[in-house]
Design a protein that fits this description.
single chain; mainly alpha; 46% helix; binds zinc ion
Length: 81
C-alpha cells in the first residue's frame, strides 16, 4: 500500500503522523460498526434490510465500503438481511 507519509520525519510531524494513523484506524472501525448496525444508512438513509435497493447501488453506497472496512479488520461481514 502506498504511504502518503513516506520520508524522513521527526519531532511534531512524526507524532502527528502516528496520531493520524490512530484516528484513521479508529474511524474505520467505527464506520464498520455503524455499517453493520441496524441503524439506517448514514449515506443514503435506507434501513439495513433495504440496503440492496440503494440509489448508489450495492456495492456503490458508502455503506458497502464501510462493511469492507470491518472485513479488513479480520472479522467477517454479516450478510445483508
Ligand atoms: Zn446506503
Amino acid at each position: 500500500m502506498n504511504d502518503p507519509f513516506d520520508g524522513e520525519l521527526t519531532g511534531d510531524t512524526a507524532i502527528l503522523r502516528v496520531r493520524v494513523r490512530e484516528l484513521e484506524s479508529e474511524n474505520d472501525k467505527l464506520r464498520g460498526i455503524l455499517a453493520k448496525s441496524d441503524l439506517d444508512c448514514i449515506y443514503c438513509g435506507l434501513p439495513k434490510k433495504d440496503m440492496g435497493r440503494c440509489y448508489f447501488g450495492f456495492p456503490g453506497c458508502g455503506r458497502a465500503d464501510d462493511l469492507m472496512l470491518e472485513a479488513n479488520d479480520g472479522r467477517k461481514p454479516e450478510p445483508a438481511k
